[in-house]
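Re-running the complex after MR caught last week's input typo. The corrected sequence lines follow. Everything else is unchanged.
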Amino acid sequence: MITLYILGAASTVLTLLGFFVPARVTRWLATGSVAASIVYLFFTWGQRQTAFGGLYVVDPISQGFTLVALLGVLWALLVGRSEKWEFSLLLLYAATGMHFMASSPNLPVLLIALEVFSLPLYVLATWRRDEPGFEAGLKYFLLGALSAAIFLYGIALHFGATGSFNAGVQGSGPLYAAALLLILGALAFKVSLVPFHWWTPDVYQGSPTTVSLMMATAVKAAGFAALVRVLNVQDQGLWGLGLGALIALTVIFGNLGALAQRESKRLLAYSSIAHAGYVGLGLYSGTGTAAIGFYLLAYLLSTGLAFAVLAAISQGDVPYERLRGLLYRKPLLGVAMGVGLLSLAGLPPFAGFWGKLLVFLEAAKAQQWGLLVLALLTSAVAAYYYLRLFNLVVARGEATEAAIPAPGAGTPVLAGQSAGGLSLATGRLAAWPLVIASALVVLLGILPGLGYRLFSPTPFAALSRPASTAPATLPATFAITSPSDGAELRAGEFSLQGTGRAGETLEVWDSGSRIAEVRVDERGGWSLVLPSLPGVGEHTYQVRRPGEGEGPSVRVRIVE
Amino acid sequence: MTASPGSEYLAVLVYIAVALAIGILAVVVGAALGPKKPGRAKLMPYESGNDPAGEVKRFPVHFYAVAMLFIIFDVEVAFLWPYAVSAGSLGIAGFVGLLIFTVLLFVGFVYEWWKGVMRWR
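Corrected-run output:
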């Protein structure tokens, strides 16, 4: 709740305060409120909270993805400075929208949140008042509006098929599949999965580099947060096929497209498309939230490094040649760029390696062998273009273009481009995020557990106070998740798995007789290897709370 | 008279049809009666005999700005309406909720006012 209050109040107050204080002060206040939200997130990490009748939910998904999104915004705020206070203000609005996007299971609210963070980005994409800037803004706006329309239609069909506006509700039938596919398509626009990626290279190139930094990191986190909630359904069916096709296309076209680029921002745009495909792999197993979260964090740090270095060079285009010998001319920029590129390529000992490993493991868990092999092969292709750029950074020789301004100089790179053109400079502090992020990439590369624990349920238990509000009656949140209802199983080779409230004890019944008791672990899951082999035929396994007569059940058929 | 649900809307439809018919009738009568002698000077746009303003570059952006503001605040009114008719039953919580909503949009209004969107020069 407090995260939302901080961001919402700061956006509202700064809207008017900007008239009275210099843009610099607004920027600091915006940076401070985003930083305060991040700090608050850490102090309440793992606690759950619901508000507004379930429209706003704080849970591990919300916290993890909000963390990544807010870090992206924070970085953009630290790197970019403009003489207009609206620059920081729009970033703050976007941050509020992203937080809401990560924190609502309600589809109409998700749509509003999507618009809340997209509209400021359309404006920010046009911040450079030149032709590529206008092109970027217009493309982004038109395609974004189209995707919102698709999303809305998907919501309507979802309501028609299930009678519920909540994401993750089980349904069946072609209408339900169509609804999920439409929603998947609309969100795929936001996270730029192929074939919904066409805007990405132009928008990343045409936007100011600072804004591209945020688009590439924070927007993806918000988009994937929504995808995790929407696709949180057990019956994979048609949308599973759809997601698989999107991932396959994405890893192929993202990486092959990147091979042909001659401009660094375009390269990073294609690379971000490819990485969206790898994150998509983590979506497959349904339990991959922690892997996705870690991947996005590693990706945020590495791609943020690359974009921040480019922002220090120019807010406009940066052809490859301009990076030649960067390491010797500007050692800090060179090292940061090198670390970022190697991590993006997925080489150990950098964070990107563990990110890739984790989502590949998720794909293996979901037994998506074809996709996994494809992802591995394309990630070998990716090494080529990352290493080519890396090679330029460490190569001896002179850049073909004019000298690069120092990161601390604060030179307005785009000042006075045209009448009414808005300048955007790289801030004096831009060097510190580079140092911190490079250190984090290496640290997470050596000790990935530090980052991974953030996203697995209830880390930081020692830091946070115990939840004081235990509900008087336990909600019906226990269920059997495996095997599925109506499954046919071979005799003697299965275990029951399910969910429940952490720490509670449940009874398992087989066709009317109590066979065992299970204890739900702190992750909210339990599993039971059947104490005796069940006989051939129909079995109805039911799980009950002690003393209650009813509970969810599955019917399975045991065959020889 | 027992009215089936929606029959008063039928009356509105009839009203529109009658108004439309009378309007069309007036135009037809006006077009049918009277002499018809068109000429070049008669068909020219009115500008006291001169050529009209000629080529205009484009409209000032103010009209768009006003139209956009109208849409935003008309949507606000559309949200205020349901509260206005059920204010009593929604109690203090409803009032506070609406107040927050209104203040948020009012902040937007103050922003555009101070930015000078309503200034016409």
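None of the earlier attempt is carried over here. Chain B has four helices and no strands. The radius of gyration of chain B is 25 Å.
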